[in-house]
Design goal:
Number of helices: 11
CATH architecture of one domain: Orthogonal Bundle
Shape: elongated
Structural class: alpha+beta
Strand content: 25-35%
Radius of gyration: 27 Å
CATH superfamily of one domain: Transferase(Phosphotransferase) domain 1
Number of strands: 35
């Protein structure tokens, strides 16, 4: 969005202009709003074109042909005045970023978002083509992402580029635009861009294997050999609604939505105390609120001290917190209150053993957080009883401290409902000490409001001295600050550096290097300088584990689990994921765990059926446990044993089954010894 120019018209019909959205040789487009109506994109024929009978007639024809709705995934023409001295049309404009804006600001979409994007936009094209219309100018800027879907904007409202047009873009088909087959080529080029961040079809090699053959067929130079839009929908899974966006994409969309909502008037345009209705255009100052990108601020509610954000900032003394890592044994006594006992099912998602092997920590979205003496089968602590939703767990390699991600709710200015974000906390079992770690955060906006970033992952260095945190970036946030390093001796965040993408997983190789997994690459960083020292490309998913002390990483590429030696860049072993490769498009790798003691790697993945009614959908879980030396899948035929996850111990494996039960398993025979809880 751009601020209005002094010479821009203030209105079109009942719509007040709030900001500029863009322009082309024929029209200018504005964000508009009217009382009691949803926001719209208003295309106004440029004054020089409005007096040209040929251009005016063509604009009128295109608007009249596109009026009404052909698909929930195509923005409809809602209103127009084609007899006005300067003709205009109002097009549906739900709140959310366009694909070009999102990818260029934030990087390629998460892999799990590509199939929903592909299906929704293909359904939109099928609706247009069935109505005997073509989009004609499909590009990333004409794909809008809202909280629940993707839709095509400006269908057929802009003249298509001719085959010899010198201004044709990389998204235009080689034969020129304007025909349905040209839309199919442009659709594929847009998918390549969404998957790679590379403009046009050149990003094809970054498209996931499950989609690549479909996209490749749409990029054929001979238009007659491309599939139709209806065929495309069938190839992608049918006419049912596309799957929801993955969780990591939703905050990005919400951030853009909030920035636009902030400049919209109240529905009734009610007067403010000063007497002026809040029907204000987006000035340069207001626009700056949506573009602020800075670093270093902390946020949130200190759940463990009971202080609000304001109280913490005003009353907290200079940090004098003792070092988190202590040398007490984990069962010598807990500093947390004695629990009353566990009631009901465990419903665990994550598990981790303490370094001395005596304590098993469990976490889950429906479990919260708990600590167990697994040998006795006894609950010893629930360190944060008011934390209902907890995620990734990891113990420090020394002492009895562990980190966990958990969901917090924060009240934000201007919003009636609380917003949810994920933060990290470290807990020390003997002392009962608990600290929050917020990772890199942007500075407050000029109006004092705060754009939050969720922490996505944490990991300890081999010595326990350093804790690395990865944060989920958003449109408003400077992506130079997506990884933070905390000194566990002082509990201070000592440095942040640039990941160019949010990291789903981090792993130390030694005390000086940490690896981060992005959408399609793994980057090894020097934590002192923040410089990249090594990159592994063509990675298929964000899941990754490191093998500290051996300079090795394990990741997934091209449908295989790859055990990779960073010294010479060669694979030490490759393990097939044939069932995952053949799975539906919405399949996701859920977890990857390495057991150095037994030489095992455990991988789980899930997919959810796509019935139109959400209550009819079913989530399926699959698991593999490979012996790195022999390549044998030890879970073949017995996947449910560890379908949800696993933690490894020299004496036992804590396997989480599909129902969230925690089974204690003999690592040699894979027989269940006991069940926790």
């Amino acid at each position: 969005m751009l601020p209005l120019h002094p010479h821009d018209p203030p209105t079109a019909g009942p719509y007040r202009f709030l900001a500029r959205l863009g322009e082309d040789p024929w029209t200018r487009s504005y964000l508009g709003a009217a009382p009691g109506r949803p926001p719209v994109r208003i295309r106004v024929l440029r004054s020089g074109q409005a007096t040209d009978p040929t251009t005016r007639s063509a604009f009128t024809h295109r608007v009249e042909n596109r009026s009404g709705s052909v698909s929930p995934n195509v923005a409809a023409v809602l209103d127009s005045d084609l007899d006005s001295p300067v003709p205009w049309a109002a097009i549906e404009r739900p709140l959310g970023p366009d694909l070009g804006e999102l990818v260029r600001a934030h990087g390629p979409l998460p892999t799990a978002a590509l199939h929903p994007l592909a299906l929704a936009t293909a359904q939109g094209l099928a609706g247009l083509h069935t109505a005997e219309h073509a989009h004609g100018t499909l590009a990333p800027e004409s794909v809008l992402l809202t909280g629940d879907r993707a839709l095509l904007t400006d269908p057929g409202l802009i003249p298509a580029k001719e085959v010899h047009d010198t201004e044709a873009s990389v998204f235009d088909p080689p034969e020129g635009g304007g025909a349905p087959a040209g839309d199919i080529f442009a659709w594929a080029a847009v998918l390549c861009f969404a998957a790679s961040g590379v403009e046009g079809p050149d990003g094809l090699d970054r498209v996931p294997l499950q989609l690549r053959s479909v996209v490749d067929a749409c990029l054929r130079e001979n238009a007659n050999l491309r599939p139709s839009a209806v065929d495309l929908v069938s190839m992608l899974g049918g006419t049912a609604a596309a799957a929801p966006w993955p969780p990591e994409l939703i905050p990005v969309i919400e951030a853009s939505t909030a920035s636009v909502r902030g400049v919209l008037p109240a529905e009734s345009a009610a007067p403010t105390p000063g007497g002026q209705g809040r029907f204000l255009g987006l000035t340069a100052g207001a626009l700056a609120l949506t573009l602020v990108a800075a670093t270093g601020a902390a946020w949130g509610y200190n759940r463990f001290t009971g202080l609000s954000e304001t109280e913490t900032a005003a009353e907290e003394p200079e940090p004098t917190t003792p070092a988190m890592i202590t040398d007490a044994a984990c069962l010598e006594g807990s500093g947390f209150p004695e629990p009353a006992g566990w009631e009901g099912e465990l419903l665990a998602d994550e598990a981790a053993f303490s370094p001395d092997g005596d304590v098993l920590a469990l976490a889950g979205l429906e479990h919260g957080l708990s600590l167990w003496d697994w040998r006795a089968g006894e609950l010893i602590a629930t360190p944060a009883e008011d934390v209902d939703r907890a995620g990734k767990l990891e113990f420090s390699p020394v002492g009895c401290a562990f980190s966990v991600l958990w969901e917090d709710e924060v009240e934000e200015a201007g919003q009636e409902e609380q917003s949810s974000y994920w933060v990290a906390s470290t807990f020390d079992i003997p002392s009962g000490q608990a600290l929050e770690h917020l990772g890199p955060q942007p500075a407050p906006r000029p109006d004092g409001s705060q754009q939050r970033m969720s922490v996505t992952t944490t990991t300890f260095s081999p010595s326990g001295r350093w804790l690395a945190l990865g944060a989920r970036t958003s449109i408003e946030v400077n992506r130079d600050d997506s990884i933070a390093i905390v000194d566990m001796e002082t509990n201070e965040q000592v440095r942040t550096f640039n990941d160019m993408d949010y990291s789903s997983h981090l792993g130390f190789l030694d005390d000086t290097r940490v690896a981060s997994s992005g959408l399609d690459s793994i980057i090894v960083w020097d934590i002192e300088s923040g410089q990249r020292v090594q990159t592994i490309r063509n990675v298929s998913t964000r899941e990754m584990v490191t093998v500290p002390g051996h300079n090795q990483v394990i990741y997934i590429a091209n449908g295989e689990v790859v055990w990779h030696d960073l010294e010479d860049g060669s694979p030490l072993g490759v393990f097939p994921l044939d069932d995952y490769t053949a799975a539906p498009f919405n399949a996701n790798i859920r977890s990857m765990t390495h057991d150095p003691g037994h030489g095992l790697v455990h991988v789980t993945w899930t997919y959810t059926s796509d019935e139109e009614d959400l209550e009819d959908r079913t989530t399926y879980r699959r698991a593999h446990l490979w012996d790195l030396e022999t390549g044998e899948d030890l879970l073949a035929g017995n996947e449910d044993l560890m379908a949800q996850g696993a933690a490894f111990h020299p004496e036992v494996i804590a396997g989480i089954d599909a129902d969230g039960n925690v089974n204690l398993i003999d690592p040699d025979t894979l027989e269940i010894i006991d069940t926790l809880g």
